[in-house]
Amino acid sequence: MVATGQLPIPQITARRFGARCLPALTDDALYERTGVRVAFTGRAGGVSEGPYSSLNLGNHVGDDPASVERNRALVLEALDAADVPLVVPSQVHGEVVVELDDASPEALDAAREAALAGADALVATVPGIAALLCFADCVPVIVVSPTGRFAVAHAGWRGVENGVAAKAVRALARADAAELGEDAASGYNVYVGPHIHASCFETGADVRKRFEDRFGSSCIPDERHVDLLEALTVGLEEAGIDRARVADAGVCTVCSCDEFFSYRAAGGICGRHGAVAFRKAG
User: Fold this and answer.
1) Cα(178)–Cα(53) distance, rounded to whole angstroms?
2) Cα separations (Å) of 200 from 11, 140, 189, 217?
3) Confidence of residue 282 (pLDDT cuts 50, 70, 90)
4) Strand order through the sheet with 139-144
5) Across the strands, what pairs with 25?
6) Transmembrane region positions (predicted)?
7) Looking at residues 152-172, what average pLDDT do you find?
8) Burial, 243: exposed, middle or buried (Cβ in 10 Å; 0-12, 13-18, 19+)?
């Protein structure tokens, strides 16, 4: 049983997992407190080749499907979750949230079908299910509750604008309401993985205006760029998140394209790193 006291302030640190010493970003204090493992993978540690080298987790980018499946298995093995069923949605830059509220085989099949139909966030309200979403510049978001429930969201600029992460937070808060009350989200930890940072995210004037109109001038650092992290944080605050509990990995994928996949830096042909979360049953 997971206690429902206050979570430790989120800290994202680098470490290596498993016999293969697979590198990932995580929060060990969170794991010790709740049993929820969060991880942001990088490029290293897999079997893919060429522009997908080496830990590509995306099966929609032209890589060998067998290599992708092996890479996903390697991640779960390294995280000591080889026996945990995995759900991976087809990401469509939308705002559909799939709730994983039953770990039975029948419910899992239904959830996978819904996720494959198109979704950009998964909310797990029961243990025994692992969620994986894939990225190459878009913003990876993992939200964890003191109850051990969690959400994983994929937020490109359209996802930030349409509030997919905030929508996932609200779904999580509904599941937590009986235990944590109406302001459940204020105690959540939010982990933001490697993504394109403001200095590299140059946009047209129309996109900047949309973001300024929606999230305010704080997300427009200058006349050329948009700060997705700031806009995301504003949206999360509207859903009840405490800004002090939003931890950014501090890595720009474009600037660090040797360690993480970047669609912009690669000219559109590259693999995808992942945001993974799970809590084992029992």
Assistant:
1) 45
2) 24, 17, 26, 18
3) confident
4) 97-100, 121-124, 150-155, 139-144, 189-192, 246-248
5) 14, 40
6) none
7) 98
8) exposed
Domains for the chain: give ranges and CATH numbers: 13-279 (3.60.140.10)
pLDDT digits (tens, 9 = 90+) for 219-234: 999 999 999 999 999 9
Residues contacting residue 13 through CB under 8 Å, at least 6 positions apart: 25, 26, 27, 28
Tokens encoding 238: 């509207």
Residue 281 half-sphere exposure toward CB, CA atoms < 13 A:
15
Q: Are 225 and 71 in contact (CB under 8 A)?
A: no
Mean pLDDT of the residues in the chain: 97
Rounded to whole angstroms, the Cα distance separating 89 from 272 reads 14
- Measure the CA–CA gap between 185 and 180, rounded to whole angstroms: 9
CA distance 263 to 277: 23
Report the DSSP pairing between strands 130-135 and 150-155: unpaired
Tokens of 83: 């026996």
